[in-house]
Amino acid sequence: MIVCIADVLSPDEVAQIKAGLAQAEFVPGAATAGWHAKLVKQNEQAAKQAAEPLKAVVQKALMRNALFQAIALPRIIHSLLFSRYGVGMSYGRHTDNALMGGANFYRSDLSFTVFLSGPDDYDGGELVIEGADSEQPYKLAAGSAIVYPSTTLHRVEPVVGGDRTVAVGWVQSLVRDAARREILFDLETVKRSLFAQTGKTPEFDLLAKTTANLLRQWAE
Fold this sequence. Notes:
- The chain is an alpha+beta fold.
- Helix content is 34%, strand content 32%.
- The strands form four sheets. A seven-stranded antiparallel β-sheet has the order 1-13-9-16-5-4-2.
- Helix 1 runs antiparallel to helix 2 and helix 4 packs antiparallel against helix 5.
């Protein structure tokens, strides 16, 4: 399941992060890639010391976003990075590492990109996610996010003009299985819609019970 979420960051939060990154040192992005992804990763990442206070802004925004919470069911949001792509930079076809975080061994169930540059700020640079028989490019508004399975092959097309800056990170979910997460997301969506239409009815209570019991059964 691939989901785009508008306005994860407010305009003020986008401006705050971009102002902080303007003062940050950037280092080659290949340093944090797996041994084979290093061959195709051509971008820059904000140095750890400068990025730490800015990561908190993104994490808080994701934690307060109800749609992100329903999609990801996050146990932990981890390995967050700020990446910059200038002209000629790209990230070739790859899949994300299954385990991240050094000795912590956090699992990557879901990947996300939070766009800090708007689509008019750069040419090229689309995030392309591959499916079984097709591929889809994404280039979202500043402050918006895309969440997608870490199991997918994906790439960032070469930037041919301007500057593409994003926050990227990963989620270890409470529910490892993607199909089960989708079932829980669908049930949560119906539950909220039903409550908005009719309030707390016996039908709502039964649906809430089923959702909670499935989560209780599947959560790790």
